[in-house]
Amino acid sequence: MALNTRLRPVHTKPGGPPLRRLGFLLVRRRRAVLALALVVLAVAAALAAGAVPRLSLARFEAPGSESDRAQAELVRRFGTGSPDMIFLVTAKAGTVDDPAVEAEGRALTARIGGQEGVAESASYWTRGRPATMRSEDGRHALIVVRIPGDADHVRGQVLPRLVPAITQGTGLLQVRAGGGEEVFRETVPLSRQDFVRAELVIFPLAFALLWLYQRRAMAALVPILAGVFAMVIGLALLRVPLAFTGISTFALNLTLAMGLGLGIDYCLFVIQRFREETRRGADRARAVAGAVEHAGRTVLFSGLTVASSLAVLFALPFDFLRSFAYAGIAVVAGGLFAAVIVLPAVLASIGGTVLPKRDRPEREAGFWHALAVRVMRRPLVFGGLATAVLLLLASPFLGLRFGVADDRILPPEASSRQTQEIIRQSFPAEETDAIQIIPKNQTSGDISQYAVALSRLPGVAQVDSAAGSFANGNRVGDGAPERFRRGSIWDTWLSVVPSAEALAGDPVRLVESVRAVEPPFEVLVGGYPAELADYRSSVVDRLPLVLALMLGVTFLVLFGMTRSLVIPLKASLLNLLSMGVMFGAIVWVFQDGNLAGLLGFTPTGTLDPSIPILMLCVAYGLSMDYEVFLLSRIKEEYDRTGDTEQAVATGLQRGAPLITAAGGILALTFAAYATAQVMFVQMLGVGMAVAVLVDATVIRAVLVPSLMRLAGPLNWWPRGRVTTSAR
Known about the structure:
Layout: H1 18-28, H2 30-51, H3 66-78, E1 85-91, H4 99-113, E2 120-123, E3 140-146, H5 151-166, E4 173-178, H6 180-214, H7 217-237, H8 239-242, H9 250-279, H10 284-311, H11 319-350, H12 367-377, H13 379-394, H14 415-426, E5 435-439, H15 448-455, E6 460-465, E7 468-471, E8 474-477, E9 494-498, H16 500-505, H17 507-516, E10 523-526, H18 528-541, H19 543-562, H20 566-591, H21 596-599, H22 610-641, H23 644-671, H24 679-711
Antiparallel strand pairs: 1-3, 1-4, 2-3, 5-9, 5-10, 6-7, 6-9, 7-8
Protein name: RND superfamily putative drug exporter
Keywords: Cell membrane, Membrane, Transmembrane, Transmembrane helix
Family: Belongs to the resistance-nodulation-cell division (RND) (TC 2.A.6) family. MmpL subfamily.
């Protein structure tokens, strides 16, 4: 039987469901739709080009937290604050205590302080030669700099001018740039390089895999073009939130990876349905309308599920994480527009070029059908074994330890990381990352005893105050009293300098210890370690809320598709299992350091909590993506036959090959980021690839049939069977 690929004129307005009517409309107006799509693409490309340079790297801040209020008080009352960057100064000969070196050091400090955008600069020489700002061998000293403003101002305007001007050094001094702002400034171009490198691998491999699956060059090319369309639309839509908030540069990687993956997934599903409709004898117009009616509905529910999972990130008051919600929702919108509006018009115009050259009868009982039947004969055995394997893979998750990100997210050759490595190895303490204690009001007594108590804490190298400097419970110097007072002798603050070991180990625990010391007056505890502690605490404290919202929203979306209360519950449980495997993988690889040599990163023994939360929302949404694809086929068969087992077997036979192919391509898209230079990007790529592969194989092929068989008629409660007429 020859495939019917003719496009007959449609003279009457077809009836049927709204999506079917939309399909016929897109067929009739295909030229106008394609012209509109080209205009939209051109405008979106211009907007996207302007969006990319405006992406930045948001700070790890917890608005309204104690550390945030402490920083504001320090600036308001004392005109100072936490340093934003460090210059590591090395004597080319002798030590930093030599008179000539000191003279040049003081001059360099003053020169930095006079640069545009710099509010303060201080150094070993201008602060009375504290031991915490001098390396143990005397070759290095520190200059600390405060640059007020948001991340875009500091990293985008001040540092690009300041760093090249200062790191030229002087006759006696070599100068390196470091500190948190410089570390994250270097992260931006590296993450963009990671994208370019990954995409150079992804596009040809995706085309090859699509060709192997579709066996037609055009059928392989169209989904990739749809993915590019989704990426461009997604980046263009980011111009809207960029008008009122910052978007992290890491959102670019997510937009491009998800845009290509979702664009391919959605288009594959529509093309597959178009092929099925054609195989059953429909002409091209009716085949397009049927694809929009059935596959289009599934794609819309899938997009709503993914977008809903990412929208949960709006519940977190952190610009860094909200960036991914904006990016993910934007790229989903682009993918839906490409698959449901543009692709049907393309198929109406060149649909014959995506059809197989040989008509192969649709197989009702192939490999996947046989697998489903075998699993459903012994659901407890197969389901139990699969669950045990997945739980074993997820078990490293039990050892998860949350920490804070530092310069080791960068590759060893990054200049700011090399600076930080020297500071870690050569300095006894971390002066630039001091914990600041600010009384809420003017003090009314001697602060010496409080400073002594703080100096005795494990992990504290020195406490500096208006009453002097203290270490191990003893007064070790006068310090710089003028630095800690403004106006009244009782209006003062303290600086708790952590040891290098404490900051490299668990700075959050040190902050907790400082806050546990009973102060003689009400205080606010701030500084970089306190900011990290408050950020981590805020993220972790909101994990239950994020999880509850994610489960609730996706439950409602799946209920809207299936009208069942049981199926969404099972889908949520299965997705949590795949999330466990993903977290087990990132703990085993990135926290514990397995495969560190292969992937080329430096493990720190902890994970920053923001990245796992991001991965949870993205992976959960993508897992539900495949759940929607499979359940739509199973539900369609159940509505037709009323037999759950037959519906599962037939649905798996028709849906699993597509899901496996789409999952493999999406996993490849994410896995390409394992070659990244920035560890955050590597973690996202590896974790997402693992989650997608597990979900598209073991869970869909084994656990879904097992649970569907065990639940039986309860699967569809309270909806029951709704029979549709065969077309």
